[in-house]
Amino acid sequence: MIAAMKRILSLLFFTLMLFSVSLPIGGQTVSAAEGRYAVVPDGDVWFCAGESESSRIFLLPRSYYVRILNEGPLYCRVEYLEDEGPYKKITGYCKTEDIIAVDYIPVRPYLKKEITLSYSLPAAGSGGLGGSFSSVEKTFVYYGQRYEGAKLYYYVLADGTFDFIAADAELAYEENTDYLDYLAAQDTAAQGGEVAKPEAGGMNAAMIVVVCIACVAAVAVAVFVIRGKKPAPPDDQTED
């Protein structure tokens, strides 16, 4: 019985260790193998081909993320987007000071946006032939943008090729807000204040799991204790 109780208590301790890390703001905990994510806090963060400003390609979408592959003092080697459907993962560099590493997996790390543009073809000849294909449409995967002088360009992918296309206006898209709570909590902690706690009477998911496991373990221990007790020997009876 004692050996069984020791095994249960050891299992309980190991389980509690697994759940000792509380769930962070914005998503699941990120493991070392997955790499850390970093948010693009504003619209001035460049995705570069190398570790220099001369290799800048495009500006990343504000409020979205890159995944850090290798963190350096000046530049981080990063990934953006993923190989899924029309999207393709690209690898490059961002300035370390321009991005903010987080310790959670964002729910929506990458901006997945496709744009369709129409192109007009030259008019038919004087003979009046043709005209059925006076315009064509093409769909591109959007990665980011950059200005050359006053002219705006999108960096896009189509048919396996990356290139720039001219644009008339900056692309409108829904921004993430999950990182704002995370940054606010980090700022509060840095100033020596208390990070916001759950409302009174409430528990987060990790706390609930731990409590449930503890209850089950306690019941198991009690059952073993009860089963392990031997019945008291009957009192000696004398015949009249």
Written account of the structure:
The chain is of the alpha+beta class and 240 residues long. It contains three helices and 13 strands, in the order αβββββββββββββαα. It has helices at 2-18, 178-190, 205-228, and strands at 27-29, 36-39, 46-48, 56-59, 65-71, 75-80, 90-95, 100-102, 104-106, 114-120, 135-148, 151-158, 161-167. Strands 7-6-5-2-8 form a five-stranded antiparallel sheet, with no helix packed on it. The protein has a four-stranded antiparallel sheet with strand order 10-11-12-13, with no helix packed on it. β12 (151-158) and β13 form a beta hairpin. The chain is elongated. The relative contact order is 0.16. Mean pLDDT is 77; it is low at 13-33 and 195-207.
Strand order of the largest sheet: 7-6-5-2-8
Largest sheet: 5 strands, antiparallel
Query: Gyration radius, to the nearest Å?
Result: 30 Å
Structural class: alpha+beta
Q: Give the ordered list of helices and strands.
A: HEEEEEEEEEEEEEHH
Query: What is the share of helical residues?
Result: 10-25%
Number of E strands: 13
- Low-confidence spans: 13-33, 195-207
User: Termini, distance in Å?
Assistant: 41 Å
Percent of residues in β-strands:
25-35%
- pLDDT averaged over residues: 77
Determine the number of helices (DSSP H or I, runs of at least 4 residues): 3
Outline: elongated
